[in-house]
Amino acid sequence: MSNANFQALPGFRDFYPDEFAVRAHIVRTWREVARRYGFQEYDGPPLEPLELYTEKSGPEIVQQLYNFTDRGGRDVAMRPEMTPTLARMAAARAGGLRKPIKWFSIPQLFRYERQQRGRLREHFQLNLDIVGEEDPAADAELLAAAIDMLRAFGLTEQDFVARVSDRGLLRALLLHAGVPEDRLILVYNIVDKLEREGREGVGARLRKEAEMGDDAVERTLDVFRHTDFDAVRAAYGDTEGVAPEIERMAQTFGQLRAMGLTDYVRFDLSIVRGLAYYTGIVFELFDVRGELRAICGGGRYDNLLAQVGGVQLPALGFGMGDVVLTELLRDRGLLPETRHTLDWYVIPVTPEQRPQVLALVHRLRDGGASVDYALKHQGVGKQFKNASALGARRTVIIGPEDVAEGVGVVKDMESGQESRVPLAEIGRP
Ligand code: HAM
Q: Distance between CA 133 and CA 391 in Å, rounded?
Protein backbone atom coordinates (compact mmCIF):
# COMPACT_ATOMS: atom_id res chain seq x y z
CA MET A 1 0.00 0.00 0.00
CA SER A 2 1.34 3.42 -0.81
CA ASN A 3 1.77 5.87 2.01
CA ALA A 4 0.67 8.97 0.12
CA ASN A 5 0.73 12.20 2.05
CA PHE A 6 -2.54 13.67 0.87
CA GLN A 7 -3.22 17.39 0.98
CA ALA A 8 -6.05 19.58 -0.23
CA LEU A 9 -5.64 20.56 -3.89
CA PRO A 10 -4.00 23.96 -4.56
CA GLY A 11 -6.57 26.72 -4.17
CA PHE A 12 -8.96 24.53 -2.13
CA ARG A 13 -9.47 25.06 1.58
CA ASP A 14 -9.80 22.84 4.61
CA PHE A 15 -12.09 24.57 7.10
CA TYR A 16 -10.86 23.61 10.57
CA PRO A 17 -13.31 24.70 13.29
CA ASP A 18 -11.77 28.16 13.81
CA GLU A 19 -11.92 28.87 10.08
CA PHE A 20 -15.38 27.40 9.84
CA ALA A 21 -16.54 29.75 12.61
CA VAL A 22 -15.40 32.72 10.49
CA ARG A 23 -17.22 31.36 7.44
CA ALA A 24 -20.37 30.76 9.53
CA HIS A 25 -20.22 34.35 10.81
CA ILE A 26 -19.97 35.69 7.27
CA VAL A 27 -22.83 33.56 5.97
CA ARG A 28 -25.00 34.46 8.98
CA THR A 29 -24.43 38.17 8.43
CA TRP A 30 -25.17 37.92 4.69
CA ARG A 31 -28.43 36.09 5.40
CA GLU A 32 -29.45 38.64 7.99
CA VAL A 33 -28.93 41.62 5.66
CA ALA A 34 -30.66 39.81 2.76
CA ARG A 35 -33.62 39.27 5.09
CA ARG A 36 -33.68 42.98 6.00
CA TYR A 37 -33.92 43.78 2.30
CA GLY A 38 -36.75 41.29 1.73
CA PHE A 39 -34.82 38.75 -0.40
CA GLN A 40 -35.67 35.02 -0.44
CA GLU A 41 -33.03 32.28 -0.47
CA TYR A 42 -32.74 29.70 -3.28
CA ASP A 43 -30.13 27.27 -4.60
CA GLY A 44 -29.41 25.35 -7.79
CA PRO A 45 -27.17 22.45 -8.88
CA PRO A 46 -23.38 22.70 -8.48
CA LEU A 47 -22.95 20.96 -11.86
CA GLU A 48 -24.49 22.47 -15.00
CA PRO A 49 -24.34 21.92 -18.77
CA LEU A 50 -21.03 23.30 -20.05
CA GLU A 51 -22.84 25.34 -22.65
CA LEU A 52 -24.58 27.45 -20.01
CA TYR A 53 -21.19 29.11 -19.46
CA THR A 54 -19.42 28.88 -22.80
CA GLU A 55 -22.16 30.88 -24.46
CA LYS A 56 -23.03 33.40 -21.76
CA SER A 57 -20.26 34.21 -19.34
CA GLY A 58 -17.52 35.46 -21.63
CA PRO A 59 -13.94 34.34 -22.29
CA GLU A 60 -12.42 35.02 -18.87
CA ILE A 61 -14.56 32.58 -16.90
CA VAL A 62 -14.61 29.99 -19.68
CA GLN A 63 -10.80 29.64 -19.50
CA GLN A 64 -11.19 28.87 -15.80
CA LEU A 65 -13.84 26.17 -15.97
CA TYR A 66 -13.65 22.82 -14.22
CA ASN A 67 -15.38 20.84 -16.94
CA PHE A 68 -15.51 17.23 -18.05
CA THR A 69 -17.61 14.72 -19.96
CA ASP A 70 -19.79 12.70 -17.59
CA ARG A 71 -20.46 8.95 -17.91
CA GLY A 72 -23.56 9.72 -19.96
CA GLY A 73 -21.47 11.63 -22.49
CA ARG A 74 -22.73 15.07 -21.40
CA ASP A 75 -20.36 18.02 -21.35
CA VAL A 76 -20.71 19.49 -17.87
CA ALA A 77 -19.01 22.11 -15.70
CA MET A 78 -18.79 22.81 -11.98
CA ARG A 79 -20.50 26.17 -11.52
CA PRO A 80 -17.97 29.04 -11.74
CA GLU A 81 -20.70 31.60 -11.01
CA MET A 82 -24.38 31.62 -10.10
CA THR A 83 -25.86 34.09 -12.55
CA PRO A 84 -26.53 31.73 -15.50
CA THR A 85 -28.22 29.26 -13.11
CA LEU A 86 -30.34 32.03 -11.62
CA ALA A 87 -31.30 33.24 -15.09
CA ARG A 88 -32.21 29.69 -16.14
CA MET A 89 -34.31 29.10 -13.01
CA ALA A 90 -36.07 32.47 -13.02
CA ALA A 91 -36.82 32.24 -16.75
CA ALA A 92 -38.29 28.72 -16.36
CA ARG A 93 -40.91 29.95 -13.86
CA ALA A 94 -41.10 33.57 -14.99
CA GLY A 95 -44.79 33.48 -15.77
CA GLY A 96 -45.84 32.39 -12.28
CA LEU A 97 -43.52 34.55 -10.19
CA ARG A 98 -44.42 37.96 -8.77
CA LYS A 99 -42.06 40.64 -10.09
CA PRO A 100 -39.70 41.94 -9.13
CA ILE A 101 -38.21 38.61 -8.08
CA LYS A 102 -35.78 39.27 -5.22
CA TRP A 103 -33.66 36.20 -4.55
CA PHE A 104 -30.33 35.44 -2.90
CA SER A 105 -28.09 32.40 -2.68
CA ILE A 106 -24.72 31.47 -1.15
CA PRO A 107 -23.22 28.87 -3.52
CA GLN A 108 -19.72 27.41 -3.46
CA LEU A 109 -18.15 28.21 -6.83
CA PHE A 110 -15.20 26.71 -8.71
CA ARG A 111 -12.74 28.48 -10.99
CA TYR A 112 -9.35 27.29 -12.10
CA GLU A 113 -7.72 30.63 -11.19
CA ARG A 114 -4.07 31.58 -11.33
CA GLN A 115 -2.82 31.48 -7.72
CA GLN A 116 -2.81 34.99 -6.28
CA ARG A 117 -3.79 36.77 -3.09
CA GLY A 118 -7.57 36.87 -2.67
CA ARG A 119 -8.28 34.39 -5.48
CA LEU A 120 -8.67 30.67 -4.85
CA ARG A 121 -10.07 27.80 -6.90
CA GLU A 122 -13.20 27.52 -4.80
CA HIS A 123 -15.03 30.19 -2.84
CA PHE A 124 -18.39 30.93 -1.32
CA GLN A 125 -20.20 33.79 -2.98
CA LEU A 126 -23.29 35.66 -1.86
CA ASN A 127 -25.45 36.31 -4.92
CA LEU A 128 -28.25 38.82 -4.63
CA ASP A 129 -30.34 39.47 -7.73
CA ILE A 130 -33.48 41.37 -8.74
CA VAL A 131 -35.37 40.12 -11.79
CA GLY A 132 -38.13 41.98 -13.59
CA GLU A 133 -37.46 45.64 -12.80
CA GLU A 134 -35.85 48.08 -15.20
CA ASP A 135 -36.27 51.25 -13.14
CA PRO A 136 -32.99 52.80 -11.87
CA ALA A 137 -34.52 52.50 -8.39
CA ALA A 138 -33.56 48.80 -8.62
CA ASP A 139 -29.96 49.78 -9.45
CA ALA A 140 -29.85 51.97 -6.34
CA GLU A 141 -31.50 49.29 -4.17
CA LEU A 142 -28.98 46.67 -5.27
CA LEU A 143 -25.98 48.92 -4.64
CA ALA A 144 -27.39 49.87 -1.24
CA ALA A 145 -27.72 46.17 -0.37
CA ALA A 146 -24.09 45.51 -1.39
CA ILE A 147 -22.91 48.43 0.74
CA ASP A 148 -25.05 47.41 3.73
CA MET A 149 -23.68 43.86 3.52
CA LEU A 150 -20.24 45.26 4.34
CA ARG A 151 -21.52 47.81 6.87
CA ALA A 152 -23.12 44.93 8.78
CA PHE A 153 -19.62 43.56 9.48
CA GLY A 154 -18.57 46.91 11.01
CA LEU A 155 -16.82 48.23 7.87
CA THR A 156 -17.33 51.92 7.06
CA GLU A 157 -16.60 54.40 4.26
CA GLN A 158 -13.06 54.54 5.73
CA ASP A 159 -12.66 50.90 4.70
CA PHE A 160 -14.36 50.38 1.34
CA VAL A 161 -15.83 52.12 -1.68
CA ALA A 162 -18.21 51.09 -4.46
CA ARG A 163 -16.83 52.07 -7.88
CA VAL A 164 -19.70 52.43 -10.29
CA SER A 165 -19.97 52.66 -14.06
CA ASP A 166 -22.46 51.76 -16.74
CA ARG A 167 -22.03 49.49 -19.75
CA GLY A 168 -24.70 51.41 -21.68
CA LEU A 169 -22.77 54.62 -21.19
CA LEU A 170 -19.46 52.93 -21.92
CA ARG A 171 -20.86 51.27 -25.01
CA ALA A 172 -21.99 54.64 -26.39
CA LEU A 173 -18.58 56.18 -25.59
CA LEU A 174 -16.59 53.30 -27.11
CA LEU A 175 -18.67 53.21 -30.29
CA HIS A 176 -18.06 56.95 -30.55
CA ALA A 177 -14.32 56.34 -30.07
CA GLY A 178 -14.33 53.97 -33.04
CA VAL A 179 -14.57 50.51 -31.46
CA PRO A 180 -16.38 48.23 -33.93
CA GLU A 181 -19.65 46.96 -32.48
CA ASP A 182 -18.72 43.28 -32.92
CA ARG A 183 -15.59 43.78 -30.84
CA LEU A 184 -17.22 45.55 -27.88
CA ILE A 185 -17.19 42.49 -25.57
CA LEU A 186 -13.55 41.82 -26.38
CA VAL A 187 -12.69 45.46 -25.73
CA TYR A 188 -14.61 45.43 -22.40
CA ASN A 189 -12.46 42.50 -21.37
CA ILE A 190 -9.25 44.27 -22.34
CA VAL A 191 -9.99 47.67 -20.79
CA ASP A 192 -11.24 45.91 -17.63
CA LYS A 193 -7.52 45.33 -16.92
CA LEU A 194 -6.56 49.02 -17.27
CA GLU A 195 -5.69 49.37 -13.62
CA ARG A 196 -3.51 46.26 -13.51
CA GLU A 197 -1.93 46.44 -16.97
CA GLY A 198 -1.72 50.22 -17.47
CA ARG A 199 -2.44 52.35 -20.58
CA GLU A 200 0.44 50.94 -22.56
CA GLY A 201 -0.37 47.31 -21.87
CA VAL A 202 -4.03 47.82 -22.66
CA GLY A 203 -3.20 49.91 -25.77
CA ALA A 204 -0.99 47.12 -27.11
CA ARG A 205 -3.71 44.54 -26.56
CA LEU A 206 -6.35 46.73 -28.25
CA ARG A 207 -4.09 46.92 -31.32
CA LYS A 208 -3.25 43.25 -31.35
CA GLU A 209 -6.32 41.41 -30.05
CA ALA A 210 -9.05 43.82 -31.15
CA GLU A 211 -7.13 44.81 -34.32
CA MET A 212 -7.82 48.49 -33.73
CA GLY A 213 -5.94 51.34 -35.42
CA ASP A 214 -3.81 53.87 -33.48
CA ASP A 215 -6.46 56.62 -33.58
CA ALA A 216 -9.25 54.46 -32.25
CA VAL A 217 -6.93 53.10 -29.54
CA GLU A 218 -6.01 56.64 -28.43
CA ARG A 219 -9.63 57.76 -28.39
CA THR A 220 -10.61 54.63 -26.48
CA LEU A 221 -7.96 55.21 -23.83
CA ASP A 222 -9.05 58.86 -23.60
CA VAL A 223 -12.52 57.81 -22.49
CA PHE A 224 -10.96 56.60 -19.24
CA ARG A 225 -9.12 59.85 -18.45
CA HIS A 226 -12.22 61.31 -16.85
CA THR A 227 -12.53 60.50 -13.22
CA ASP A 228 -15.80 62.13 -12.23
CA PHE A 229 -19.33 62.08 -13.40
CA ASP A 230 -19.62 65.81 -14.14
CA ALA A 231 -16.45 65.73 -16.27
CA VAL A 232 -17.89 62.94 -18.41
CA ARG A 233 -21.16 64.82 -18.66
CA ALA A 234 -19.29 67.97 -19.80
CA ALA A 235 -17.08 66.10 -22.29
CA TYR A 236 -19.65 63.76 -23.83
CA GLY A 237 -23.09 65.08 -22.84
CA ASP A 238 -23.89 65.90 -26.48
CA THR A 239 -22.49 62.70 -27.94
CA GLU A 240 -25.06 60.53 -29.64
CA GLY A 241 -26.63 57.97 -27.32
CA VAL A 242 -24.84 59.25 -24.23
CA ALA A 243 -27.33 61.72 -22.68
CA PRO A 244 -30.02 59.17 -21.67
CA GLU A 245 -27.35 56.96 -20.08
CA ILE A 246 -26.03 59.90 -18.08
CA GLU A 247 -29.55 60.81 -16.99
CA ARG A 248 -30.13 57.25 -15.76
CA MET A 249 -26.94 57.23 -13.70
CA ALA A 250 -27.85 60.60 -12.22
CA GLN A 251 -31.12 59.10 -11.00
CA THR A 252 -29.36 56.15 -9.38
CA PHE A 253 -26.87 58.42 -7.65
CA GLY A 254 -29.73 60.69 -6.50
CA GLN A 255 -31.48 57.79 -4.80
CA LEU A 256 -28.28 56.64 -3.10
CA ARG A 257 -27.89 60.20 -1.81
CA ALA A 258 -31.41 60.02 -0.34
CA MET A 259 -30.39 56.79 1.43
CA GLY A 260 -27.38 58.56 2.95
CA LEU A 261 -24.88 56.36 1.10
CA THR A 262 -23.11 58.92 -1.10
CA ASP A 263 -19.84 58.56 0.81
CA TYR A 264 -19.67 54.92 -0.19
CA VAL A 265 -20.06 55.46 -3.94
CA ARG A 266 -17.71 56.76 -6.61
CA PHE A 267 -18.32 57.07 -10.34
CA ASP A 268 -15.49 55.31 -12.19
CA LEU A 269 -15.61 54.54 -15.90
CA SER A 270 -12.69 52.13 -15.62
CA ILE A 271 -14.99 49.60 -13.94
CA VAL A 272 -16.00 47.45 -16.90
CA ARG A 273 -16.29 43.89 -15.47
CA GLY A 274 -15.03 40.82 -17.28
CA LEU A 275 -18.37 39.07 -17.76
CA ALA A 276 -20.03 39.33 -21.15
CA TYR A 277 -23.68 39.64 -20.17
CA TYR A 278 -23.75 43.06 -18.47
CA THR A 279 -25.80 45.71 -20.26
CA GLY A 280 -26.28 48.56 -17.77
CA ILE A 281 -24.89 49.63 -14.42
CA VAL A 282 -21.73 47.77 -13.37
CA PHE A 283 -19.92 48.11 -10.04
CA GLU A 284 -17.21 46.69 -7.86
CA LEU A 285 -16.51 47.18 -4.17
CA PHE A 286 -12.87 47.63 -3.13
CA ASP A 287 -10.96 48.31 0.07
CA VAL A 288 -10.05 52.02 0.05
CA ARG A 289 -6.35 51.33 0.52
CA GLY A 290 -6.38 49.43 -2.76
CA GLU A 291 -4.47 46.52 -1.24
CA LEU A 292 -6.92 43.75 -2.07
CA ARG A 293 -8.77 42.36 -5.07
CA ALA A 294 -12.46 43.26 -5.53
CA ILE A 295 -14.69 42.22 -2.65
CA CYS A 296 -17.86 42.31 -4.70
CA GLY A 297 -18.93 42.82 -8.29
CA GLY A 298 -22.19 43.05 -10.15
CA GLY A 299 -24.42 44.85 -12.55
CA ARG A 300 -27.43 44.78 -14.80
CA TYR A 301 -27.89 42.05 -17.42
CA ASP A 302 -31.14 42.74 -19.22
CA ASN A 303 -30.71 40.15 -22.00
CA LEU A 304 -29.45 37.08 -20.17
CA LEU A 305 -32.86 35.61 -19.31
CA ALA A 306 -33.82 35.85 -22.95
CA GLN A 307 -30.56 34.09 -23.93
CA VAL A 308 -30.80 31.20 -21.49
CA GLY A 309 -34.57 30.88 -21.11
CA GLY A 310 -36.26 32.73 -23.93
CA VAL A 311 -37.96 35.21 -21.59
CA GLN A 312 -37.29 38.90 -22.00
CA LEU A 313 -36.97 40.13 -18.42
CA PRO A 314 -34.54 42.77 -17.13
CA ALA A 315 -32.31 41.67 -14.26
CA LEU A 316 -29.44 42.83 -12.08
CA GLY A 317 -27.39 41.47 -9.22
CA PHE A 318 -24.03 41.11 -7.56
CA GLY A 319 -21.66 38.48 -6.22
CA MET A 320 -19.67 38.96 -3.01
CA GLY A 321 -16.99 36.40 -2.18
CA ASP A 322 -15.87 35.22 1.24
CA VAL A 323 -12.12 35.22 0.49
CA VAL A 324 -11.27 38.90 0.14
CA LEU A 325 -13.93 39.81 2.69
CA THR A 326 -12.27 37.56 5.30
CA GLU A 327 -8.88 39.17 4.57
CA LEU A 328 -10.31 42.66 4.94
CA LEU A 329 -12.13 41.83 8.19
CA ARG A 330 -8.93 40.28 9.56
CA ASP A 331 -6.87 43.35 8.57
CA ARG A 332 -9.35 45.63 10.33
CA GLY A 333 -9.67 43.48 13.46
CA LEU A 334 -13.34 42.81 12.74
CA LEU A 335 -13.35 39.03 12.89
CA PRO A 336 -15.47 37.65 15.72
CA GLU A 337 -14.09 35.75 18.71
CA THR A 338 -14.11 32.13 17.61
CA ARG A 339 -13.36 30.53 21.00
CA HIS A 340 -15.31 27.34 21.59
CA THR A 341 -17.63 27.42 24.62
CA LEU A 342 -19.89 25.05 26.52
CA ASP A 343 -22.65 25.73 29.03
CA TRP A 344 -21.81 22.70 31.17
CA TYR A 345 -19.16 20.02 31.63
CA VAL A 346 -20.22 17.12 33.86
CA ILE A 347 -17.62 15.17 35.86
CA PRO A 348 -18.02 11.79 37.58
CA VAL A 349 -15.51 11.24 40.37
CA THR A 350 -15.41 7.46 39.78
CA PRO A 351 -16.84 5.36 36.90
CA GLU A 352 -19.74 4.31 39.16
CA GLN A 353 -21.42 7.76 38.82
CA ARG A 354 -21.59 7.47 35.05
CA PRO A 355 -25.36 6.62 34.92
CA GLN A 356 -26.19 9.77 36.94
CA VAL A 357 -23.84 11.81 34.74
CA LEU A 358 -25.42 10.51 31.53
CA ALA A 359 -28.93 11.19 32.86
CA LEU A 360 -28.02 14.78 33.80
CA VAL A 361 -26.14 15.45 30.54
CA HIS A 362 -29.10 14.20 28.55
CA ARG A 363 -31.62 16.29 30.47
CA LEU A 364 -29.51 19.46 30.11
CA ARG A 365 -29.10 18.88 26.37
CA ASP A 366 -32.85 18.33 26.01
CA GLY A 367 -33.29 21.73 27.62
CA GLY A 368 -31.12 23.30 24.90
CA ALA A 369 -27.81 23.67 26.78
CA SER A 370 -24.45 22.74 25.23
CA VAL A 371 -22.99 20.00 27.43
CA ASP A 372 -20.00 17.69 27.28
CA TYR A 373 -18.25 15.08 29.44
CA ALA A 374 -15.32 12.66 29.16
CA LEU A 375 -16.18 9.65 27.02
CA LYS A 376 -13.57 7.57 28.78
CA HIS A 377 -13.11 7.75 32.54
CA GLN A 378 -10.29 10.04 33.68
CA GLY A 379 -9.15 11.51 36.99
CA VAL A 380 -11.09 14.55 38.25
CA GLY A 381 -8.10 16.88 37.68
CA LYS A 382 -7.81 15.81 34.04
CA GLN A 383 -11.55 16.29 33.54
CA PHE A 384 -11.34 19.82 34.97
CA LYS A 385 -8.55 20.59 32.51
CA ASN A 386 -10.76 19.38 29.66
CA ALA A 387 -13.60 21.55 30.95
CA SER A 388 -11.44 24.70 30.86
CA ALA A 389 -9.92 23.85 27.50
CA LEU A 390 -13.41 23.47 26.03
CA GLY A 391 -14.52 26.83 27.45
CA ALA A 392 -17.10 25.39 29.88
CA ARG A 393 -18.84 28.08 31.92
CA ARG A 394 -19.89 25.67 34.70
CA THR A 395 -19.00 22.16 35.78
CA VAL A 396 -20.98 19.65 37.82
CA ILE A 397 -19.02 17.11 39.86
CA ILE A 398 -20.81 14.00 41.03
CA GLY A 399 -19.11 11.74 43.60
CA PRO A 400 -20.27 8.56 45.44
CA GLU A 401 -21.70 10.44 48.45
CA ASP A 402 -23.42 12.95 46.13
CA VAL A 403 -25.25 10.14 44.38
CA ALA A 404 -26.54 8.86 47.70
CA GLU A 405 -27.81 12.36 48.55
CA GLY A 406 -29.06 13.09 45.00
CA VAL A 407 -26.91 16.24 44.61
CA GLY A 408 -24.03 17.51 42.49
CA VAL A 409 -21.40 20.19 43.11
CA VAL A 410 -21.90 23.03 40.64
CA LYS A 411 -18.82 25.16 40.03
CA ASP A 412 -18.79 28.49 38.21
CA MET A 413 -15.55 28.25 36.24
CA GLU A 414 -14.98 31.99 36.12
CA SER A 415 -15.57 32.93 39.77
CA GLY A 416 -14.57 29.53 41.18
CA GLN A 417 -17.71 29.58 43.39
CA GLU A 418 -19.14 26.17 44.31
CA SER A 419 -22.51 25.07 45.61
CA ARG A 420 -24.26 21.77 46.24
CA VAL A 421 -27.44 21.58 44.20
CA PRO A 422 -30.07 18.78 44.00
CA LEU A 423 -29.47 16.96 40.68
CA ALA A 424 -33.07 17.48 39.62
CA GLU A 425 -32.68 21.25 39.95
CA ILE A 426 -29.42 21.69 38.02
CA GLY A 427 -30.00 23.79 34.94
CA ARG A 428 -33.49 24.81 35.99
CA PRO A 429 -34.11 28.55 36.01
P1 HAM B 1 -17.33 38.16 -10.25
O2 HAM B 1 -16.83 39.55 -10.28
O3 HAM B 1 -16.69 37.16 -11.15
O4 HAM B 1 -18.90 38.23 -10.54
O5 HAM B 1 -17.26 37.61 -8.77
C6 HAM B 1 -17.84 38.33 -7.71
C7 HAM B 1 -16.96 38.29 -6.47
O8 HAM B 1 -16.68 36.93 -6.14
C9 HAM B 1 -15.58 38.89 -6.63
O10 HAM B 1 -15.62 40.28 -6.40
C11 HAM B 1 -14.80 38.16 -5.55
O12 HAM B 1 -15.08 38.69 -4.26
C13 HAM B 1 -15.39 36.80 -5.58
N14 HAM B 1 -14.57 35.89 -6.41
C15 HAM B 1 -14.64 35.67 -7.72
N16 HAM B 1 -13.74 34.77 -8.11
C17 HAM B 1 -13.06 34.40 -7.01
C18 HAM B 1 -12.00 33.49 -6.73
N19 HAM B 1 -11.43 32.76 -7.69
N20 HAM B 1 -11.56 33.38 -5.45
C21 HAM B 1 -12.11 34.09 -4.47
N22 HAM B 1 -13.12 34.96 -4.66
C23 HAM B 1 -13.59 35.12 -5.91
C24 HAM B 1 -19.71 37.16 -10.72
O25 HAM B 1 -19.41 36.03 -10.47
C26 HAM B 1 -21.12 37.54 -11.16
N27 HAM B 1 -21.83 36.30 -11.50
C28 HAM B 1 -21.80 38.30 -10.05
C29 HAM B 1 -23.21 38.67 -10.38
C30 HAM B 1 -24.33 38.24 -9.76
N31 HAM B 1 -23.58 39.52 -11.34
C32 HAM B 1 -24.91 39.59 -11.34
N33 HAM B 1 -25.37 38.82 -10.40
A: 50
| Residue 140 pLDDT | 98
pLDDT at 275: 83
Question: How many CA atoms lie within 13 Å of 190's alpha carbon, on the beta-carbon side?
Answer: 24
| pLDDT given at position 4 | 75
CA distances from 287 to 120, 156, 282 (A): 18, 10, 17
> Where do the domains of the chain lie?
17-331, 342-425
Q: At what angle do helices 214-223 and 194-208 cross, to 10 degrees?
A: 160
In angstroms, what is the span from residue 80 Cα to ligand 1's centroid?
A: 9
pLDDT at 412: 97
Q: How far is the CA of 123 from the centre of ligand 1 (A)?
A: 9
Q: What is the DSSP string of 399-417?
A: -HHHHHHTEEEEEETTT--
Give the three-state DSSP class for 425: helix
Query: Can you list the residues of the chain whose pLDDT is less than 70?
Result: 1-3, 56-59
Which of the listed residues 114, 123, 150 should we mutate to test ligand 1's pocket, taking the one with most ligand atoms within 8 A of CB? 123
**Cβ partners under 8 Å of residue 147, min gap 6:** 162, 261, 264, 265, 285
Of 254, 256, 279, 27, residue with least CA distance to 145: 256
**What's the pLDDT score for residue 108?**
98
Whether pTM > 0.70 for this model: the answer is yes
Q: Does the domain spanning 342-425 belong to CATH 3.40.50.800?
A: yes
Would you say domain 17-331 falls under CATH 3.30.930.10? yes
* pLDDT of the residue at 1: 55
Ligand 1 binding site (Cβ under 6 Å of any ligand atom): 81-83, 111, 113, 119-120, 123, 125, 127, 129, 275, 294-298, 317-321, 323-324
**403 CB neighbour count, 10 Å cutoff:** 19
